[in-house]
Structure prediction request, 271 residues.
Amino acid sequence: MSIAKGLIQTVKRAVEMQANTMQIFSRNPRGSSYTSYEKSEIKEFRRVLKENHFGPVLAHAPYTMNLAGSDRVYEFACQVIRDDIIRMEELEIDYLVFHPGSHTGIGTEQGIDRIVAGLNQAITGSEKIMVLLETMSGKGTEIGVSFEELKAIRERVSHPERIGICLDTCHIFSAGYDIVNHLEQVLEEFDQILGLDLLKTIHFNDSMMAFGSRKDRHAVIGEGQIGWEALMAILIHPKLKSLPFYLETPLDDQGHKEEIARIKEDYYSYV
Ligand code: FE
Ligand code: FE
Ligand code: ZN
Prediction:
């Protein structure tokens, strides 16, 4: 994943890694600054994506954006989500994913109230981009740790048709969804509570932390507590295999290139 600076350069790096989709940050992930793009740059960006047959590009909102936070933090988050929906729509990006937020003491219910209000002031209903809620590990006071919490957000917004889900394999594992031993049941539960049609993207990560630990530390595929077999079972699952998968593993470009090659090699031995 990289900061959306030098868009073309970013796509070219992904092409070089033999990727066929990618995630970018909508702006500086740990701050507020962002780049404005020239029309010509956007055009070239779309051309390179098309030329390389890329799947849907995913934009990730900054970590500093907390819609469940108290006043100042909340106001900043409202502006960021409002602006980034417009900015990413200009790039013709398919999905903008964000961490629902941390309530930092006001409680889950009130936190969800804020998230809903924050989304409502940003989403007009006429945009093409979909805003995705990410499944969270549940560290600290994070909201979005259960499918029920995500549902509570979605069903209360004014334009639920613009809201989908991004499932992070590391996060749901550390949140206590047993994707290693009971993948079918987890998918069944997701389907019953949210509906699998809302699942648009997968953040494909192993986890350094134990099952149910509620800690968020990504590991390289096959080197964590989820393990290679369980992750491949997710990748090839009939209900998931047509979705775009995004690696957020702790590697550099060369490492990602090798990781993608390993995954592809194994993938083609199953299909
Ligand atoms: Fe994330
Ligand atoms: Fe993620
Ligand atoms: Zn994470």
